[in-house]
Amino acid sequence: MPIRDEVLNWLAEAKADLRHAEASINIGDCNWACFAAQQAVEKALKALVLHVLGEYPKGHDLVKLYRRIKDFTSISLSEGALARLSTYYTLARYPNAGIERPSEEISREHAEEAIFIAKGALDEVAKIIRDP
């Protein structure tokens, strides 16, 4: 299956977000590391939906994006891990999204887990897309 330029663009931006997550954790911005990890997976899954189904996906729910393509590919991700990562879309950025001070209350441990999940997801997506 030929790889569309848009698919590679989504995947490249996913990788850029993962690099941002790693840079953020290194300077102690753990909430931003979590958000960037969520964004990395969102963009990777959107690349895969576009690649496999030819559709431009909408939304930020990683489980929902995953469920759109899991039956059409060999991808195997933990829905529980994706659900935890999905919460960072708002939780990591807004003081009224569940915790009062995300910049203080989201820990390095949270960020390390988020980055671990993101790396695994990006690896799985890249294998399926066969990223050059």
Summarize the structure in words.
- This protein is an all-alpha fold and about 130 residues long.
- It has one domain: Nucleotidyltransferases  domain 2 (Four Helix Bundle (Hemerythrin (Met), subunit A), Up-down Bundle), CATH 1.20.120.330.
- About 70% of the residues lie in helices and about 0% in strands.
- α1 packs antiparallel against α2 and α2 packs parallel to α3.
- The longest helix has 24 residues.
- The relative contact order is 0.21.
User: How large is the count of helical segments?
Assistant: 7
Major sheet size, sense and barrel closure? none
Tell me the series of helices and strands, N- to C-terminal.
HHHHHHH
Q: Tell me the CATH architecture.
A: Up-down Bundle
CATH superfamily: Nucleotidyltransferases  domain 2
Tally of strands: 0
- What percentage of the residues does DSSP assign to strands (E)? under 5%
Separation of the first and last Cα atoms: 13 Å
Name the poorly predicted regions. Answer: none
